[in-house]
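Journal club side-thread
Mid-discussion, someone asked how the predicted structure for our own chain would compare to the paper's figures. Pasting it here so we can look after the session.
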Amino acid sequence: MRMFSWRFIRLWQRNRDVFFRLWRSELPGFTIEPVIVLLAFGVGLGTFVSGVGDQSYIVFIAPGIVAGYAMFAGIFECTYGTYARMEFQSTFDGILATPLNAEDIIAGEIFWGATRAMLTGTAILVAAAIFQLVQSPWALLIPAVCFLQGILFSALAIVFTSYAPAIYSFNYFYTLFINPMFFVSGAFFPLTNFPPFVQNLSWLAPLAPAIHLTRSLFIGKFEPNPFLSLGIIVALTVIFFAWALVAMRKRLTK
């Protein structure tokens, strides 16, 4: 494995400039849709749910929506977006002719995916604050958590993209892994509803610790220890980032 250099920022800037040109077409999917989901589940389904502990149902699911859609933003950018730039637009071929190397491209893609995750999570957080669902000033740290989990999920997406033989392969990634993880990581109901074995196993899913940490900051209650969640996120980030550098470099330079 070779490390990336500071030049990865140039790839990040390239993606940022493209986003600023196209943001109107991308805005609904990662800002309006999650707010609709929050209201549909929180207000619609919430009328049939008495609450979770001492929280109303909409307050309980709001952190899960923030973390979940931050995940989707980073993963979507580094699956379909990265694959299109790599295979259809030949963007990376042109960039490799510049002083940037493969590792710079990979790191730039991952950090841009993390930026998209942070922007999406922050937009939903602002909407939640407008609806008075945020209960603690600790929530100001949530954009940083979204960025950190964005690095994790973007790296995970890059790993899968590096092995994807065709763009249709992402259907399996989303259907068999990402979407099930979203629903069983504590976003819509407590993990304590599962048997102990499943509860312990769920922490291996990257989204579960991200939701727990986001929920702790949302409500200002830090039990169980949020540092355990942070440690899991950091450890998985290191693993998948290193894997992404190795696997995608082979794909780009084969």
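Post-session note: The mean pLDDT is 90.
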